[in-house]
Design a protein that fits this description.
The protein contains two helices and eleven strands. The chain is mainly beta and 234 residues long. It has an eleven-stranded antiparallel β-sheet, with no helix packed on it. β10 (202-215) and β11 form a beta hairpin. The longest helix has 5 residues, at 167-171. It is globular and about 65 Å long. The two termini are 33 Å apart.
């Protein structure tokens, strides 16, 4: 996240390494309803790396985050259907790995938790929490592959980030003015690229990305992006 903190990384032991950290907590969870924090936010990641044969490599990782935020001032007991309580906790896990052997590279990752955001970790947006401030459940999956064919690198990937409705969303489908609320359902992306290495210092690239966002009331938006360019190292 975007916060001051301190991290300790253990020595690598048979390919394993553990990184643990404490970070300045983030307030304003839940549409600005949770403005108080108490403690440093703990985060941790365990990684494993191993090599085999001459070109083989395996990398695995698992990480996690946990933070509780509170309402400011006095907090009355909730009365409306599925309201925000006096506090809520953002927590989640991430996991994944990478496999390499000769010309083949394959990576996959996933995440699961509450209040994780859509663009970066612990982001406070309308997609992260319902109108009452309850944090929404989020999960996502991503896979990326690459094949080295001589001087050319062929790559393609797919990923999705999904938002799940809260009990408040289900019990209160409209806002105070009677307008139906449409919540972001998922963001999905597909990519493909070709990189040609003319020389060790000169690289040509053509790539394509398709981004799609869909909402629970059926709205959808699709963006197509194509790029071509050159990289020169000196």
């Amino acid at each position: 996240g975007f916060a001051a903190g301190i991290i300790y990384g253990t020595p690598v032991l048979k390919g394993f390494q553990l990184n643990v950290g404490g970070f300045e907590p983030i307030a304003l969870y839940g549409n600005g309803a949770l403005t108080r924090t108490k403690y440093l936010r703990p985060e941790a990641e365990l990684t494993y790396e191993a090599r085999f044969r001459e070109t083989g490599k395996i990398i695995l990782f698992a990480n996690g985050v946990y933070q509780t935020a509170y309402k400011g001032g006095s907090c009355e007991p909730p009365a409306a259907p599925a309201p925000l309580g006096c506090q809520d906790t953002a927590a989640g896990v991430g996991y994944g790995g990478r496999f390499e052997l000769g010309p083949v590279r394959l990576g996959a990752a996933g995440h699961y938790g509450r209040g994780l955001g859509t663009n970066y970790a612990l982001e406070s947006t309308d997609a992260s929490s319902d109108p009452s401030g309850n944090l929404r459940l989020v999960d996502g999956y991503f896979v990326q592959g690459q094949f080295v064919l001589g001087r050319a690198d062929l790559a393609a990937g797919w990923g999705i980030n999904r938002i799940h409705l809260t009990n408040y969303d289900l019990n209160n489908p409209t806002d105070s003015s009677g307008i139906k609320l449409s919540v972001l359902k998922y963001q999905m992306g597909i990519n493909a690229s070709v990189v040609y290495h003319v020389r060790p210092y000169l690289h040509l690239d053509v790539d394509y990305f398709r981004a799609q966002a869909k909402w629970f009331l059926g709205e959808s938006q699709v963006v197509h992006v194509a790029n071509a360019g050159m990289t020169f190292n000196w």
